Amino acid sequence: MAVLEIDHLVAPPKPAGTITSFIRHAGFVLNLGQWTAGFVRSMGTETSFTGEVFAKLLKALTHPRGLRWKETLIIAEKAGANAVAITGLLGFLIGTILAFQTVAAMRQFGAEVFVADLVVIVLFRELGPLITAVLLTSRTGSAFAAELGTMKVNEEIDALTTMGLDPVQFLVLPRIIAVIGVIPLLTMFNMLMGLVGCGLVMVSWDIPGAIFMDRIRYAATLTDLFGGLAKTFVFGTLVAGIGCLRGLQTGVGPTAVGDSTTRAVVSGLIAIIVADGVFAVVYYFLGI
């Protein structure tokens, strides 16, 4: 009888499947917790970096002599002047594609002259600033991450700090100011080339150039133009700031610089799309 009572007190062993399921769920919870902790730390770092950049930027605007203007102009030449050709080509192709995609359908209703209105609005409000920002992210943001990442791996940034020089003031601000200065100009050139591409398509469909110009003058408003250009300042800040931040966050190892460059491009693209969505909502409620 005693043996039987002891057998009743001992809990039966858990099935192997239950133990495996418990371990799997525990691992998921652990991974989720680690990801959340890493995300919170990353947000804290990015918030701190953003605050520091804006504080130094305001100081540079009030005391411009403290900025490395020669270095800023060199960076602006690389980010702006050297990107004019590819920016114009993309704008021309976008305008051509938009016109080709819409003029055939609009002609069925006898409204092909309104293709110019559509292209103007799309280029000025959305695609002009967005395409230029995406181009700068892949071209300039990645370059910033690679440059600063290489300096971080070679301990050059640590040397600057040892000499009493602030890396943000010395390296980051010239890049941000340079990109903010050139991105509106590149965007306007992108828009212009897009209109050129659209005009060629319209003329090829036997629409007089005078009518095309009249539709542009009617559709192109200062609200659309400046609304699109306002985005470029935010996009430029995001492109340069994220590229510099990822470069400063470069670790060690043979793939560190490449990883930083990849993260700069991915983070920049996501930030630009999110910012563009925010602008769309804000403009909607403002009636712009």
List the topology elements.
Blueprint: H1 2-9, H2 16-62, H3 69-79, H4 84-107, H5 115-153, H6 156-162, H7 167-204, H8 209-219, H9 222-248, H10 256-286
Helix pairs in contact: 2-7, 3-7, 4-5, 4-7, 5-7, 5-8, 5-9, 5-10, 7-9, 9-10
How would you characterize this protein structure?
The mean pLDDT is 84. The chain is globular and about 65 Å long. Helix 3 runs parallel beside helix 7 and helix 5 packs antiparallel against helix 7. Helices cover 84% and strands 0% of the residues. By secondary structure, it is mainly alpha-helical. The protein contains 10 helices and no strands. It has one domain.
- The overall strand count is 0
- Stretches where pLDDT is under 50 for at least 5 consecutive residues are none
Give the DSSP E fraction (strand runs of 2 or more residues).
under 5%
- Please give the alpha-carbon distance between the first and last residues: 87 Å
Sheet of most strands: none
H-E order: HHHHHHHHHH
The tally of structural domains comes to: 1
Q: Number of helical runs?
A: 10
> What is the average per-residue confidence, as pLDDT, rounded to a whole number?
84
Binned, the helix content reads: over 70%
Class of secondary structure makeup: mainly alpha
Radius of gyration: 27 Å
Based on CA inertia axes, which overall geometry fits? globular
